[in-house]
Amino acid sequence: MISQLAESAAFFTSQGRGQVWPGQGLSEYYCEFSPKHYHDQLFGQYQVHCPPDMLRAVDKRKAGYLAGRYCAREALEAFELTHFVILNAPDRSPIWPNGLLGSISHSEDHAIAVIGDDRYLVGLGTDIEPIIGDDAMRETQSQVLNPEELHLLECSGLSRRQLFTVLFSVKESFFKAAYRLVRGFFGFDAVSIQALDHGKGEVTFCLNETLHERLRQGDELPGRFKMLRADTIATLVSLSR
Questions:
Q1: CB 147 within 8 A of CB 171
Q2: What are the pLDDT tens digits along the chain (241 aa)?
Q3: Last residue of some domain: 72, 97, 119?
Q4: What is the gyration radius of the CA atoms in the chain, in angstroms?
């Protein structure tokens, strides 16, 4: 029991509110966690609902799920919803309280949840990605980026691997943000990254096709990115009304 309590205390190595996307008008909670200290009793200790199918998953996956849903629960406190249980829709996406929309992401040892008011937003997406390796970048860059976007990899201030990860992750964040409207999947070529400002952590991207009446071909939209560590990147896309 003492060993299990020690592991519980060691699971979250860092956590807090508004550490990644301050000033964006969102409720955000972020944490770093240690998968090696995971055990199933943590769901009960941190009062996070665990669906039955998740209990059959490997510990690494359960640790990420727990950390992400814990962040979501903490982010909901800004709306005085301390006891709201976040369940999953049939497509496995989180079911948020009426009037709110949100997004959850986790990597092997980072997790984040962002929640916004749907009076001001129609979509919200965040993503955390470890820096993509050289081999994976070579194998996937033609599927993720078009020839014009490949020129952005020469942008100074970040390595090619970091830049590729930013561009990939921004598209992932947009897919999450747009899914609430589109209710379907679409390819990487639906979006083109047009500009990236490393100093401001800002990205501008354009829609190459109409996905919804609110997401029309030619629309230019903003995204944000931030280095969490030298080996991990976070991105955010919020779609205003």
A1: no
A2: 434 444 557 899 999 999 999 988 999 999 999 999 999 999 999 999 999 999 899 999 999 999 999 999 999 999 999 889 999 888 888 999 999 999 999 999 999 999 999 999 999 999 999 999 999 888 888 888 887 787 777 766 788 889 889 999 999 999 999 999 998 888 888 999 998 998 899 999 999 999 999 999 999 999 999 999 889 999 999 999 8
A3: 119
A4: 18
Whether 124 maps to a domain, the answer reads no
- Look at the alpha carbons of 235, 180, 105, 120 in this order and tell me if their dihedral is positive or negative: positive
Q: Is residue 60 part of a domain?
A: yes
**CA 176/CA 92 separation, integer angstroms:** 13
pTM of the prediction?
A: 0.92
Unique residue bearing structure tokens 């997406």:
125
The rounded distance, in Å, linking the Cα atoms of 61 and 65 is: 6
85 and 166 assigned to the same domain:
no
What residue numbers bound the domain in which 235 lies?
Answer: 129-240
Q: Which of 181, 73, 78 is nearest to 122 (CA)?
A: 181
- Return the closest-CA partner of residue 72 out of 106, 99, 109: 106
Tokens of 153: 């990899």
Q: Are residues 141 and 62 in the same domain?
A: no
Contact 160, 150 (CB under 8 A): no
